[in-house]
Amino acid sequence: MRNRLWTALLALGLCTSMSAHGQTGAAVVGSAPGVAGVAQTVKVTAKITAIDRAKREFTVKGPQGREVVLFAGPEVKNFSQMKVGDDVMAEYVEALTLELKKGGGKTVGITSQEGAKGAKAGERPAGLAGRQVTVIADVVDVDPSTQTLTLRGPKRTVDLKIRDPEQFKRVAKGDQVEATYTEALAVSVQPVKAPAK
Question: What one-character-per-residue DSSP string does 26-81 give?
Answer without folding.
Answer: EEEEEEETTEEEEEEEEEEEEEEEEEETTTTEEEEE-TTS-EEEEE--TT-TTGGG
